[in-house]
Amino acid sequence: MRRRAVLNGLATVILLGLTAACGIGADTPPVDGYDIAGAPQYPLFDHTLTWTGTDVIVVGGAGGDPTDGELVDEPLIWNPNEGVRPITSPPGPPLNRHTAVWTGEELIVWSGTTVPFGVGDGLVASTAAYDPDSDTWRELAGSPMEVARVRGRGAAFADHIIVTGGSTPQSDNEGTIGVYDLESDSWATTAVDGDALTTVATGNATYVLWADRQSTVRLSQLDVESATLTEIPLPDLPEGADRSNAVVADGRLIVWAEASPPETGVRSDELVTVLVLDDDRALAADPTRPAAWRELVVQVDFPGSATGFSEVRPLVHTDDWLAFMEGAELKWIRIADGLEIRRTLTTPQSCAFNTEAVGTPSVIVAWGGNCSRFDDDGNEQQIVEHFVFEPPAVDE
């Protein structure tokens, strides 16, 4: 079933240059991802992709016919072996810019907005859970409105869902962290004195990355039972690292601290510090003791400035690689040693504006997008991307 809500007549057309960037010599040839057969061929953006361990679940978003401006309620599952199939729609109105978290058994969909590109108007604090085995949804307790946001981040740990990050109508609320207890169907809140950027969970603990009032990046451990935070000592990070993020890749805790460029607008490697904790068990046991962080030296031309699926959103990764898309170029950074590989895409769908992406242990799945280009005859072509990309094979 497909339900739609009108976008107040809003229609957006974005034109990006698709000039292929240069790779790094013979070791980085042009590469195509393989297209996902059966994926919807209409623009889709501000949706969520969630990897369950076997499938990718796609929920919500805006798009549809680019001329009528509508929200899309056409959720589906893609399985690498079985293809694409529709699933039952979530309860309530269609959403975009919401948050989706996989618990290991259910997909939790929370907050977001019923208005495209909205932050205040249409903001909801609803929560619902989807069971792929039965193809059914159940409504859960909504969060307090001060927790509600668009493009929030979420993590699951010990029968709790933690949500934070994103944007709220009131900037004072952007340090608020919501903790949902699956067993009691209830919410608790806590807060940092600044902006909560993201939350992640390893198998041992939950962590919140945040920026204080001076834009200094900080990391805290969150006790989900008591909703209390304990700050973790970190090595020096770039000042004003407001583009920072954190992910967990194959059990490793990774903090990507990235500062905004100076007034000149020139970005450089010096603005980025990447810290990797290969084993967080000691940190989880005592977050006040210095941890064995190693610095991952990265050499990237445009850190975090990609027009595709890396900007602002959680870093996309496999077990071994971080991934970025910049126009017609896909960039890979190996977590073990910082090796950077750039590969020029040759697919027609090499425009990645507003593309959402999710990593699995072995591949990156890019889905949707909202951009166009003009062919040699001056005709506008809408570009829709549903692609799977494999990391580069490297000869050691």
Q: Give the structural class.
A: mainly beta
The number of helical segments is 1
Q: Residue-averaged pLDDT, rounded?
A: 83
Radius of gyration (Å): 20 Å
β-strand number = 34
Strand order of the largest sheet: 1-7-6-3
What overall form do the CA principal axes indicate? globular
The biggest beta sheet reads: 4 strands, antiparallel
Q: How helical, in percent, are the residues?
A: under 10%
Distance between the termini: 50 Å
**What is the strand content?**
35-45%
Q: What low-confidence regions span 5 or more consecutive residues with pLDDT below 50?
A: 1-28, 303-313
Concise description?
The chain has one helix at residues 281-285, and strands spanning 3-6, 34-35, 44-45, 48-51, 56-59, 62-63, 70-73, 76-79, 83-86, 99-102, 107-110, 127-131, 136-140, 153-157, 160-164, 176-181, 186-191, 194-201, 206-212, 217-223, 228-232, 245-249, 252-258, 272-277, 294-296, 316-317, 321-326, 329-334, 340-344, 356-359, 364-367, 371-374, 380-383, 386-389.
Provide a descriptive summary of the structure in words.
This protein is mostly beta strands. Helices cover 1% and strands 40% of the residues. The radius of gyration is 20 Å and the shape is globular. Residues 1-28 and 303-313 have low confidence and may be disordered.
